[in-house]
Structures are given as structure tokens and as C-alpha cells.
Amino acid sequence: LNISMIIIVTQGTNGMKKYAQALNSQQCYSLLHSYPLYIIMDDVYDDCQLHKDKFFRRHCTIVRFMKGNINPNDWLLVMDADIAVINPNMLVL
């Protein structure tokens, strides 16, 4: 199975700095298990910026990203920026 990880960060927040420790743990985990990790700002797609609700913007961004970057049979693990990896030995599947 091809598994990738994605984190959507809200533009205009200091999420990258605020959650640096959690993001670092996710980066280490993705490298350890060869899972590509994508950290994307929620304003990267113009049509997603139209949505006022940040959660809907996140969903829109994920869908747009998947359409252009993920094959139909691949898996995508969506993570929040504030989630730290506790046990790096556990696999996604």
C-alpha cells in the first residue's frame, strides 16, 4: 500500500511555530516509515479560499490535493498539526 500523510495549516495562524514539537514528531515518523508527508496551507487553492469556515476550507484543500497528487488506490492519513506521534514503532496499517 502507498500511504501518505497530510497536515493542513490555517493561513494567518502561527500553527507552524506553535505546534513545532508535534510537527517534528510527525516528520520523524514519516521519514522512519517512508510515508510522504505534505504540510499545506489552507489558502493554496483559490476555490477553497472562498469558504469562510476553516474546517470546510480544510476539507476542500484535502480533496483538491488528492485529485492532483494521490492515486485512487493510495491511502492518505489526515493529521492535525497539534497531534504528536507517541509510539513511532506503530504503523498506520
From TrEMBL:
One Pfam family from the record: DUF273
Protein name: Nucleotide-diphospho-sugar transferase domain-containing protein
Gene3D superfamilies per the UniProt record, alphabetical: Spore Coat Polysaccharide Biosynthesis Protein SpsA, Chain A
InterPro entries xrefs: DUF273, Nucleotide-diphossugar_trans
Species classification: Eukaryota, Metazoa, Ecdysozoa, Nematoda, Chromadorea
